[in-house]
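Human: Cast an eye over this sequence-structure pair and say how the chain folds.
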Amino acid sequence: MAKISFPKGFLWGASTAAYQIEGAIEADGRGPCVWDSFTAAGRIQDGSSAAVACDHYHRWPEDIALMRQAGFNTYRFSIAWPRVLPTGTGAVNDKGLDYYDRLVDGLLAAGIRPMACLYHWDLPQPLEDKGGWQGREIVGPFADYARVVTARLADRVKHWMMLNEPNVVAIFGYGVGDHAPGHKLGEVGILKALHHQNLAQGAALRAIDAEHSGLTLGTVINLQPCRAESDKPEDVAAAARWDAVWNRVPLDGLLRGQIPPLLAEKMRDIVKVGDEVAIRFPIELLGINYYSRMTMKYETGHPFDVWWGDAHCDRWTFMGWPVQPDGLYDLLVEFKRDYGNPAVFIAENGAAYDDKVEADGQIHDVDRVAFLRDHLQAVGRAAAEGCNVKGYLCWSLLDNFEWAFGLSKRFGIVRVDYDTLQRTPKDSYRFFSEVVKTGQV
C-alpha cells in the first residue's frame, strides 16, 4: 500500500467537548445546563453522569502533555456556556473564564494551537426554560456570549468555531427526544431548532467580526452523504428529504443563505423576511465531522417519513455505525465540486470499540487503528486530488461521557479509568502520533 503524504502546515490533533470531559459541574460558579437536567431525569442509559467524567477541569496539564507527546499542533475544545454565563445571560462568571485562560496558556506553552468551539450542546438551563432553540429569542444571548468569550481570549485564540453539529442538536434534542433537552416535537421542532441555530450563528459571527480582526472564523457540521437503501422511488425521495434536513439546512444556510427547496413549504412560517441574509456569512474555515454515510429509506411514523435503512456494510463500530471511509472521500470531492472548494478540516473522525485492557496493561485497539488508517487515506486521497483540506482532528483524545450512552462507549485514543482517572495511551494513540510526526500514512 503506497504511502500518502500530507502537506506542511497541516492541522493535526484531536477534538473534545467540555461537557464530556471537564467534570466539575458545580465548581467555581458554573450554572446548570440541559444535559444536567437530562441526566437528573434518569435519561442516561448506563445511569452514569458527567459530574466527574475525565476531570479535565483539574487534569488539563496532564492531557496537554499527552497531546504534546503525540506531536499535535492543534486542539479543538469547547467552552461551556454555563461556566461563563451561569444563567446564559447577564453576570459573567470570571472564574469560568479564568479556567479557559489557564487552558489556553497551557496549550500555547506546549506549542499547540487552541481552536475554541462556542457551543457543543451544553445550553444553559435557564435559556431552555425560555424556549431554547425553539425561539429566536436565543439569538441575542448567543451573540452576547460570543462577545464575552472572545473579549477575554481572542488575543491568544485565533481560530473560532461557532456551533458543533447543529443538525444533531435539532433532530435528537428537539425532534425525537434521545438527547437533551429531550423534546419530541417532530418535524416542526427540528426545523425551528435548525433555523434558530443558523440565526444565532450568523449573529455571533458578525459580533465577533465587528470587534476583532485577524481571526479565523468558522463552524462545525456533521456532514454525512445520504444514500437510498434501494432504487425504489419512495426510498430515493426519502434520502433526498433527509439530505435536505441533515446536510443542507445548516450548510446552505451558512454558505449560500438559502433554505433547501424541498423544505421551503415546511419552513414557510419559521423563516422571516431577512433571515436568509442573516444566516449567511463568509467563513474562513469549515469543520466537517464524519463518521459514516447515511443509508435511508421511506418509513412512516418518523419525522419526514424517513428512517435508517440497511447500510449493506460488513464493518461496524461498537456504536452500531457502519465503517465507510469511502464516504469521507466522496464527501470531500462532492464538496469541492458543489461549493467552490472552500477551506475545510476534519473536525471529528473516530470510532467507539469495546476496548479490552490486556494482561500487560495496554489496549491493543486494532479496529480503531484500522478505522483511523482507512479514513486518513481517504482524506489524503481527496487532498491529492485538489480538495482544500487543511487538517485532521481525531475524535477523541480521551474516553469520555458519550451523551445519552453515558460512560459505556469509548471513543478515545487514550483510555480513561473512570475509577482512578488514570490515562493510558492506546495503540491508536501511538499509530496516530506516528502519522502526525511523519506527515504520512
